Amino acid sequence: xxxxxxxxxxxxxxxxxxxxxxxxxxxxxxxxxxxxxxxxxxxxxxxxxxxxxxxxxxxxxxxxxxxxxxxxxxxxxxxxxxxxxxxxxxxxxxxxxxxxxxxxxxxxxxxxxxxxxxxxxxxxxxxxxxxxxxxxxxxxxxxxxxxxxxxxxxxxxxxxxxxxxxxxxxxxxxxxxxxxxxxxxxxxxxxxxxxxxxxxxxxxxxxxxxxxxxxxxxxxxxxxxxxxxxxxxxxxxxxxxxxxxxxxxxxxxxxxxxxxxxxxxxxxxxxxxxxxxxxxxxxxxxxxxxxxxxxxxxxxxxxxxxxxxxxxxxxxxxxxxxxxxxxxxxxxxxxxxxxxxxxxxxxxxxxxxxxxxxxxxxxxxxxxxxxxxxxxxxxxxxxxxxxxxxxxxxxxxxxxxxxxxxxxxxxxxxx
Length: 415
Hints:
By secondary structure, the chain is an alpha/beta fold. Strands 3-2-1-4-5 form a five-stranded mixed β-sheet, sandwiched between helices. It has four domains: 22-70; 77-150, no CATH class; 165-213, no CATH class; 242-404, 2-Layer Sandwich (Nucleotidyltransferase, domain 5), CATH 3.30.420. The chain has helices spanning 22-32, 39-46, 50-61, 65-70, 77-110, 116-125, 131-138, 142-151, 165-177, 183-197, 204-213, 283-298, 316-319, 321-330, 346-360, 368-385, 396-404, and strands at residues 242-251, 257-265, 271-277, 308-312, 332-336. It is elongated and about 135 Å long. The longest helix has 34 residues, at 77-110. The protein has 17 helices and five strands.
């Protein structure tokens, strides 16, 4: 039996896949283009798969010799154009950001004003960058910048600066009298004196600015400690709805200690009465305190017309049975704060701090007798002249007068 058998090529070694070079691939593709040749015939003669040869032929027709070598598909022309468009857009954005960076650098160099419009006008006036780009970078209106570049910055016609020396002298006088006053209370005293003279009062911000310039501001307290959370509200909207009371003590120069108890209205903050002694505060002292407070507000009465809350801590002089019974008899409702919660009687605690800071600390205290004689003067100054932040920096007496006559004039003597 005669005939031709297909020749079989044996690949030695571990590799079982034939590798074709680019030249061999192109040679096979060229053979398929010869007259009378077919892809199947060339594939059979070369020992490759017809599908593989068809793929090489298609890639060669697309001109992808490199793709033919790597056996990858050629990127379509539409995708190539899309990539080119993306590159151009990125180049445009990069150029825009570079321009913005240069504009901002120039703005830092030429800026003499903190306002963006003035900075933009200064940069645009250099003619280094387009005005539109400058305005878009700094976020300002182009029309305003263009007007400033052409006409120059507008000059505001403000009132001339007022001399500081008279106001500084008045501030120094207030501080000499009350060294613990910060600028709001100094301003309140100056306002009261200006109103008494019928003259315009100094602006509060101006008082702060001048005191800061001359180093007259108090140092801020930066301390603090964890305290019990308190969510209630001690203050009330009307007078004679709630009174609060507390006690404090301080030492005299001769080491004698004076103990003071007071009664305070939780609306107008007036210290209605006080008692002072060198011994401990007793139940009898608190009952005298209650009677004096009632007489001060309602003249002499056996019983209050309406019940008033009496807010105190848990001191023995306040929780004594005699004190509570007497309070009920005259129409006071005794209320006590929780244990270890001074914030629940915060108004009385604040008054204690204010009194010690503004009166006890800066007045002579040679002995207990002198201090006890001076206490009525200190309490009267607090009620008549001491500015209170919660009262709009009015004193308690001023606040009471304004509540009684909202449209009337309030005139209080500082003597």
